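Hi team,

As requested, here is the filled-out complex form for the 5-O-phosphono-beta-D-ribofuranosylamine run. I kept the field names the same as last time so the parser does not choke. Let me know if anything looks off before we queue the next batch.

— J.
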Amino acid sequence: MNPKLRVAVLVSGHGSNLQALIDASASPEYPAQIALVISNVPTAYALERARAAGLPTKVIDHRAFQVREDFEQALLDGLTEHRAELVCLAGFMRILSPGFLRMFRGQILNIHPSLLPAFPGLHAPKQALIHGVKITGCTVHFVDEATDNGPILVQAAVPVLPGDTEESLAARIQVEEHRIYPMAVRWVATQLVVREDRRTRVDAKPAIFGLSLLNPGS
Ligand code: GRF
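And here is what came back:
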């Protein structure tokens, strides 16, 4: 059996996506394992989830560093020490520098609560309500230098219902987040999806899907 892909999850808050990844990786056949959880917020509930699952954790508080380079060096040291092969941003509320991101090109994923390229940035469910869209959702994408911009791996759609509040819509979106993030990590771990220039390429593996996928990159 192939060794499991070593994943570092970077968090700042509640950590429900971390939990979804923890739950998925509890299955023996899941092709990835969480090697490290890093939080830049010492009080993040995500850290409790990680500890409860017996995972190695690191608090790297950005406020302890004068310059971003030093903060990122500490991140890098943690990732190296734990031999991380893939980084999953899961509600991580710090912008990473272009230099850092270039080092991990094709190895950092993010989840965002909208159907990108619609509503990048903060408060995506609120933006969806303000614009009156009828469908929104979530996106897992590779991270590049621009915010919420890299090649898309997978998206899931949810309806915007009459009477929705930001909270009710965000909660509906999160149900889908918890479904597609572990799925995207599985695809990367099994090399079913690889990053190409602007897009992702899906390598059809009929044994997994039971059908031939079209190549959306062509
Ligand atoms: C999610 O909505 C995710 O899309 C966004 O930040 C939120 C994190 O939630 N990037 P949680 O901490 O995983 O519960």
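Two things worth flagging: The longest helix spans residues 166-189. The beta strands are 5-11, 32-39, 57-59, 86-89, 108-112, 135-142, 152-159, 193-195, 200-202.

Thanks,
J.
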